[in-house]
Amino acid sequence: MKKTLSIAALLCGLCTGLHAASMVTAWTGGAGPTEGNTYDVNNAGNWSNGVPNRNGNAGPDVIFADTGTINVSGSLVDTSDGGSITVTGNSTVTVGGSRWTGNVTVGTGSTLSLGQVDFKSSLITLDGTLNLNVCGIDPGGDGARLVFGIGGILNVDQKMWGAGSFSVSGLLATTSTDVAAGEFQFVTRTLINSGGFDGGDVSLGEFLAEDGSSLTKASAKMEGNAADHQGQYYIYKDGNTIKVQYVVGGAVPEPATATLSLLGLAALMMRRRRA
């Protein structure tokens, strides 16, 4: 039986690594079951704690949970310097504008779409889909760390500017009930689709199995018998994409099996990065 790492301990490491935000406000406006539901970002009635705003040099924490499909018109405030945008609960959120951006979390089954984004010392945790028109790095910050959960993906229509200031790490689903028990197969997963990379190469970091156990980074693309490469992965740039190849083994359904949460993973990666 797989065991889950201590989430409380991991989150403690995460919390101590972030600045306190000036305010927390959650979306309370209309929830849309279909496309075409547009709401004004500057309408205080759409927020639990008023329109998101900065307090001094701290960005706000902005939360979209269980919203359905919504389009938010207007520009979201600068969330950098300790602030964040979080989308969860199978929500599909499109924001008309958002330039300077802090941390971003997109949960399983959710999608966040933004226009032009410049990240500043950002932790971007993706179990869902993040769509950007174009993105870059605020030179006054410490880059952007992309942490991918089992189903996370980043799509960028245009170039990723300052690509050398981005890093990727995450989780891989190394077992599946879709594969016969005792069998193994290679899987290739796309992490980033982009219009190109400018200003260096994305740093290709560490990936773990879904329960948080370590995997070994291969030195080249794996071939031959997949069973001979159990516990390995190979992450690489392929044109304008970043992909990862790994081995999936067959598993018998096991109700007690647990997966490391994405927030737990993000905290773990931050702790390893500081070590």
Ranges with pLDDT <50 over ≥5 residues?
A: 1-19
How many domains? The number is 1
Note the overall shape: globular
Span between termini: 29 Å
Biggest sheet details: 12 strands, mixed
SSE sequence, one letter per element: HEEEEEEEEEEEEEEEEEEEEEEH
- Indicate the proportion of strand residues: 35-45%
Radius of gyration, Cα only, in angstroms?
19 Å
- Number of E-type strands: 22
Mean pLDDT: 86
Structural class computed from helices and strand pairing: mainly beta
Structure characterization notes:
It is built from 2 helices and 22 strands. The protein is mainly β. The protein has one domain (7-274). Strands 2, 4, 6, 7, 9, 11, 13, 16, 17, 20, 21 and 22 form a 12-stranded mixed β-sheet that branches. An 8-stranded parallel β-sheet has the order 1-3-5-8-10-12-15-19, covered by helices on one side. Helix 1 packs across helix 2. The longest helix has 13 residues, at 262-274. Residues 251-274 form the Ice-binding protein C-terminal domain.
